[in-house]
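Thread: quick sanity check before group meeting

JM: Hey all, I'm pulling together slides for Thursday and realized we never actually wrote out the predicted structure for the chain we discussed last week. Dropping the sequence here so it's in one place. If anyone has concerns about the input, flag it before I start.
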Amino acid sequence: MLKALKAGDIVWYAPDQAYGGKSTAVVPFFGLPCLSNTATSRIAHLSGSPVVPFFIRRLPKAQGYVLTLYPALDNFPSGDPAADTLRFHRLIEIETRKAPEQYFWVHRRFKDTRPEMYQ
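JM (edit): ok, ran it. Output follows.
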């Protein structure tokens, strides 16, 4: 992935789930502290690539999709992976509110990956 980004290629990366390890932090998501993947910040730092948030929403009755692309994030990464992740979470929250039934609410982030004190 890094090689492709450094070469100027486009890579789609979904940062929703976290499985522990060095690229994670507890970051609020819809007001709940969740173990979150901070790798987007790290990948942007290592590759020098811009981060362009991209979201897909299905239209009713199989009429197609709405694609939402945000402008490349300014000052990203900021040097604070948790703050960068919170910033990205806010965008996911905005888009999820448009069609909450389409979000994958059964992610592990809402179950066994939440810090023990919040379970």
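AS: nice. The chain is about 25% helix and 20% strand. The beta strands are 24-29, 32-37, 54-58, 65-69.
JM: adding both to the slides.
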